[in-house]
Task: inverse folding
């Protein structure tokens, strides 16, 4: 089941990459690279930093097929992709819940400090988009208008708090993932953002 | 002989980096870094992703000398470099043929899937230019007007097809390399590009 | 004592990151990431290239606390940070002296060529700023107006020259570090830059 979520998240991330690449008038090759980077960039950075190489998408060819398939689908049906907006948003949100926890567990396996594990989880979920934006010559959107990271961090804190109690690992995993998803849904629904640190008259 | 080609490719890549850095009015240090990154960036990314560290240019000092020499040459004779345009284009083209195959063989050594090997080959040949463009604050030219990647991919496919037949490894290597070179030369000569996916009236 | 210098350098780098992120109107998350990247980016790249993973800031949580503390301090007192300009410049300068030597010694441990070791030292001291500028969508300032690298390179050369003599390792380390610091201070005081390679009438 986790694998299914992973694949759905990968599809949503890849399609979001295609849409950004379209806006930049990239050619077919550029679009595929951006789809790839958006989908696997966060996990790749995580694997590089902890030294878990070859990085994960290289050793499981399924990701490559899924990303290529999603990208080609998005290119062909790009005028209709708006109809899928809600589904893609849900896949994407569930995906970041899972990616956060995958990153945390990889950090734990490498015996890293809980704060570093949470950083790795947040990175897994959000740095694909950061690398995508750098390749598209934009300041990463997540640095200006935070859309992911707080949800990932709160989910990560939940994970480590729950581990202090005698709860089965699977439940801890699921509850923390749900925290990520719910925080993100609420933030989008109620337009909650990080406190503005710039005084109004300067903006 | 492969080593000679490698060095000629490195020279061509380094000089192309110098020329881009000139246009950005970089200082001496910036120019050297861009020359370096253009020449070894693709191989460095490949080595990082498969975990082959220290990365290759760090363990063979020849690359450093060649890149420094080529960069200083290009800085001193920059007003005359146009006379070398054809030679540089040939070095560059032969270089990507070789780099593609070096990437593929490194992927095979790491026991990766043929598609991942071809991706590593293409990355070796083309991502030096991608990193160069990012450092110069441009959208990578290869994502907008594809100039390399199709040739690398076709050469890679040739490589894996030929391996199915009882042909000596050396011949497979040479023929696949020639495919990369010929496809690239034809593409440049006949101005062949990837199919345009944007409708005319929107461009 | 080296650890204290390291921490002071980390503080200065983190605060410089916060100030750049402010100018880009980043939100709280973006500011923290830029502070982090500026402080540890150079060492992270070095560790990745030589394959020393998990990278160093992941295995010593102190860096995370120091960077978070420095960033929050800089955010709260940002209107007053000008009063600290001289202290921060000194921390920063002492920091690059130390970082250069840490990079060199890591290169020696990996049995790399002296030139590669000096490159690693320079990278440790200066590539945090490069990654910061890329994330902020700027051409790295160090490529246009060199502010660090020459000092790092001269300090590195001093280090390897002194090692030829029967001098205690600690002294070599300290003298080379002082060379970095003095060259940088003199360069800033007397506005020394790399020779301009662009003819006046073209600029």
Result:
């Amino acid at each position: 089941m986790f694998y299914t979520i992973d694949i759905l998240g990968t599809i949503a991330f890849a399609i979001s990459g295609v849409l950004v690449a379209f806006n930049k008038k990239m050619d077919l090759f550029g679009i595929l690279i951006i789809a790839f980077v958006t989908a696997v960039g966060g996990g790749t950075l995580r694997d590089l930093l902890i030294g878990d190489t070859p990085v994960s998408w290289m050793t499981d060819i399924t990701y490559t097929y899924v990303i290529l398939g999603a990208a080609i689908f998005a290119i062909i049906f790009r005028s209709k992709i708006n109809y899928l907006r809600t589904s893609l948003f849900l896949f994407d949100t569930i995906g970041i819940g899972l990616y956060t926890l995958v990153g945390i567990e990889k950090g734990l396996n490498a015996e890293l400090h809980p704060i570093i594990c949470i950083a790795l989880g947040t990175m897994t979920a959000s740095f694909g988009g950061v690398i995508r934006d750098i390749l598209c010559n934009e300041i990463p959107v997540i640095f200006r208008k935070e859309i992911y990271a707080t949800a990932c961090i709160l989910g990560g804190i939940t994970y480590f708090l729950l581990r202090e109690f005698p709860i089965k690992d699977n439940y801890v995993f699921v509850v923390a993932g749900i925290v990520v998803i719910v925080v993100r849904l609420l933030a989008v629904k109620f337009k909650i953002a990080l406190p503005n640190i710039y005084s109004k008259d300067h903006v």
Q: What stands out?
A: The mean pLDDT of chain B is 87.
